[in-house]
Design brief:
alpha+beta, single chain, 221 residues
Amino acid sequence: MNHQDVPPKPSSPPTAGLPRVPAPAARPVLHPHMEPQDGAAPRSGRVKRPTLWIAFFVAVLLAVIGSLAWLALWLNSNPDSSTSRGQVPGVVETTVTPPATPLPLPREGVQPADYALGDCFKDFDPESLSSTVVPCDTGHSAQLVALFRYPEGGSYPGAEALKAKALEACQAARLGPAANDYDLNFERSFPSTTSWESGDRRVDCYVVAPGGNVINASVLP
């Protein structure tokens, strides 16, 4: 290597020919409502955006809590609301529980209020004020297979509501194999305004043979 080709090391950094860098100008202070001139997003926007989301979430949460509180108060102030929609308290009975109509049978002049689930009737008329209860292994035309008892008290629900409740009882009825041996129809019976006032709170569902006293067995399981 030719050492004469290597320039001598300067004693101090050269200053000639270097570009001059002006001192940074002070950044103008923007008014809160002024937009920056360089097109950058304002800082105020980065702070307010999550704040708005939080405020929106809190508002929705408060609205939901308020709605639930109002619903609870409304339900407490309307204790009979379920009754007004037809959801009356009571139980559909489809299982025979002794004792039924007292022995000996047949027994004539039995009133509807004294009919027992599982009773079999000769020459049955659902509108009659009394019927003849007979043993189910003798000829009969109807059998009480389901019923619904309304609780004591309350106003008369109306014929349509009572019919609908009797239909529910018929739909819940459980019939045994003997029912397949006969031509049967469902028949409904429910209280009149007069019998309701006297304490009748029961709707009944019967199976009835159109041909008369041709049934010779219980159609219940």
